[in-house]
Design brief:
alpha+beta, 3-stranded antiparallel beta sheet, 27% strand, DNA-binding
DNA sequence: TCAAATAAATGTCAATTTTACATTTATTAT
DNA sequence: ATAATAAATGTAAAATTGACATTTATTTGA
């Protein structure tokens, strides 16, 4: 016997939740589905896994094809496998989430499949179970970012503390005291103060910071505990 | 068109890492594989996903069939999908981990497939990529148990503080100060002291505690931060 | 029944971390 | 030069953590 003869075979797909940050709001990137059914309805970036690639490779490929994005932070989220989740034919989908610096990738984003950014609180109706995927991705982002410095993936290489704080505040839907936030972040030793300032948002200007790449790798698992304790939506991870 | 005609279909399986605790050591349950290739070699509990069930349902079914276990803590871990992970035919596997109270389920465990317990540091060679799955499961268990009270799933309904401490110490491969451990655990408000003592392990006897089920649900996401900061193997989650 | 042995239970103080809160500073525009 | 704007910064009280030793309940055997 060279095959598991009697077993059912399934279609397998990947779906990517792409997060970006415009300086104010966390957003996700959606495209209009190309196929029937639900053609032209909003969808995550998805595609079928090919015979010669792993799900990870498929996610990279699909993301590249639909958005032009490459080399971004990409992490497996969860697999969705209810028999009826795709009405045409049963498809098992491995969901991923990606974090991108919208500025850096603005040029790269291909318009071929016209992806559009949506703030999380103004999402259109999504096809299939994509709403659930987004909800889970948001939860996992919060959960993980509370312990690991992944939110920097959403920022340009040089960023200010006020910008970073905006990001954290939007992700956790809360607000932090400026002084305490700054102290906590700086205590990680992950940020390097630059000499230049960003003068776009204030008269005084805010100093730029960069990630200290050396410490970043080494201290990835030693980050902060940023979950507000009464935060909902961190229960399932 | 009622099908996605041109796409490849894949076998899809589930594999379960079952954790148990014998009072001293964290262990996992393995069985001997029933099929060629690698027949009789040690394997996680696995099985193919059927046409009418989700991966979650398959995991429950497979666990029941191979071990007799039912109603246990079961959580999706990650999907493994390298094209060559199963040498016979490409199979995408959704891995799960389960936490069981070995005492309670000792009777339930079916001997039909003769599962055996192995301490994590004395695991035999496993088939396919199961070693990776176990490594990831151990990592995720540590990670999650640092923030959520899931290790109680490994204990009988009534347990002593010394037993609980043994469990934490074994999971994190470290030791805690008895007084500080007790204070930290009790501060969660999750434990209810019982009137009886366990006299099996000491002359004085140690009081039993139960989980406060009401608080358990409510405070699931408010647990403690138990990760020793220099703990390796918490980087990928 | 008394003494010895065993493991459980408990308390305190110093160090660290977190929280709450208001003023000063650099720069631009008028 | 002055006003306006947002950035940067410090401090004291409260809470948490970490380090450390003694007392207590019970059993067993002298």
């Amino acid at each position: 016997m060279t095959k598991y003869q009697k077993q059912t075979r399934f279609l397998a797909a990947v779906d990517c939740i792409v997060f970006g940050f415009d300086g104010q709001k966390l957003k996700i990137l959606l495209i209009k589905r190309a196929l029937e059914p639900e053609k032209n309805n909003w969808s995550l970036m998805g595609g079928f896994i090919q015979a010669d690639e792993s799900a990870d490779e498929a996610a990279v490929r699909v993301l590249k094809k639909l958005t032009g994005l490459e080399g971004v932070y990409l992490e497996q989220l969860q697999t969705f496998s209810k028999p009826d989740r795709d009405p045409i034919e049963r498809t098992i989908s491995v969901a991923y989430f990606a974090l991108i610096d919208t500025q850096q990738y603005e040029q790269q984003i291909t318009d071929e499949y016209h992806p559009e950014w949506f703030p999380l609180d103004k999402m259109p109706k999504l096809i299939f179970d994509h709403k659930k995927m987004v909800a889970l991705a948001k939860e996992k982002l919060r959960y993980k970012a509370a312990l690991h410095p992944i939110l920097f993936e959403l920022l340009p290489p040089k960023f200010t503390l006020p910008l970073l704080q905006n990001l954290f505040e939007d992700v956790y839907e809360t607000s932090f005291d400026k002084r305490n936030f700054s102290r906590k972040i700086m205590s990680t030793g992950l940020l390097l103060k630059q000499k230049e300032k960003d003068k776009a948002n204030s008269k005084k200007g805010a100093f730029y910071y960069k990630l200290d790449k050396k410490h970043y790798q080494k201290n990835f698992h030693k980050f902060l505990h940023f979950i507000p304790y009464d935060n909902p939506g961190t229960a399932n991870l």
